[in-house]
């Protein structure tokens, strides 16, 4: 718990720690994706239609998103020092697994609702269009979005922390899970090649299809919300 207290001791330590953490996640996730593609020689989902200097621009925009994520840690630091939120340091393995599962499900719902909002005509034109410039996404597309979108997606942690004292490992695992799924959803390679897009690993194809078709498939790993609100794309393969 001394580490938690140190990270939240001052706003600038919280900001610096967040910036380094998310920078590591971003580049670590991207390079891990590149290594996996090279090692397993996975099939591409669609032909590459990258625009000029796409990866360079994605990295530049993503570093701005990383900065926004780090800034969003400052309100958490303030709430922690004022006693409005609490972070647990003790939990059984089962309690930790339950907390991670709850945060994962909340992240899926939060992403779906945020993503659906971002596809409203005004938000898409002013904000979300930037992410969709990557018609064929890459491993470096994961954080490549408008600063407002970064604020919206980064706010996922606020409500859970206000409602319950989650263990610090569960809180750390949330962005780790998120970046891994985002890399796999944007790397344009299929983990379920030859299988239906409804396969549990079909999220890679479903999100790539979303980048091509723009409308529909607003969820990420889970299909439940797209099915519930009838926003899933029916196409099996692009």
UniProtKB/TrEMBL annotation:
Protein name according to UniProt: Sterol desaturase family protein
Species this protein is from: Rapidithrix thailandica
Any GO MF annotation of the entry: oxidoreductase activity
Localization (cell): Membrane
Keywords: Membrane, Transmembrane, Transmembrane helix
Residue intervals passing through the bilayer: 12-36, 61-80, 92-119, 140-160, 166-185
InterPro entries: Fatty_acid_hydroxylase, Sterol_Desaturase_Related
Gene Ontology annotations of biological process type: lipid biosynthetic process
Taxon lineage: Bacteria, Pseudomonadati, Bacteroidota, Cytophagia, Cytophagales
Annotated Gene Ontology cellular component terms: membrane
Principal location: membrane
Pfam family, one: FA_hydroxylase
Positions of the Fatty acid hydroxylase domain: 102-231
């Amino acid at each position: 718990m001394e580490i938690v207290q140190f990270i939240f001791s001052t706003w600038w330590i919280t900001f610096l720690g967040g910036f380094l953490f998310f920078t590591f996640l971003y580049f670590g996730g991207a390079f891990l994706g590149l290594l996996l593609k090279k090692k397993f020689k996975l099939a591409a989902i669609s032909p590459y239609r990258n625009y000029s200097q796409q990866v360079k621009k994605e990295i530049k925009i993503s570093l701005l998103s990383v900065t926004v994520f780090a800034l969003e840690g400052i309100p958490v630091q303030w709430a922690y020092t004022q006693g409005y939120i609490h972070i647990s340091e003790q939990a059984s393995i089962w309690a930790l697994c339950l907390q991670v599962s709850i945060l994962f499900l909340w992240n899926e719902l939060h992403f779906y609702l945020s993503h659906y909002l971002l596809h409203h005509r005004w938000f898409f034109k002013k904000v979300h269009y930037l992410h969709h410039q990557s018609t064929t996404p890459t491993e470096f597309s994961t954080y490549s979005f408008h600063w407002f979108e970064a604020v919206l997606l980064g706010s996922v942690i606020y409500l859970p922390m206000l409602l319950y004292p989650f263990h610090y490992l569960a809180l750390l695992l949330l962005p780790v899970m998120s970046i891994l799924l985002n890399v796999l959803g944007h790397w344009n390679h299929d983990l379920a090649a030859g299988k239906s897009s409804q396969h549990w690993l079909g999220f890679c194809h479903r999100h790539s299809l979303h980048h091509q078709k723009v409308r529909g498939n607003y969820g990420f790993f889970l299909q439940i919300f797209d099915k519930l609100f009838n926003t899933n794309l029916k196409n099996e393969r692009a």
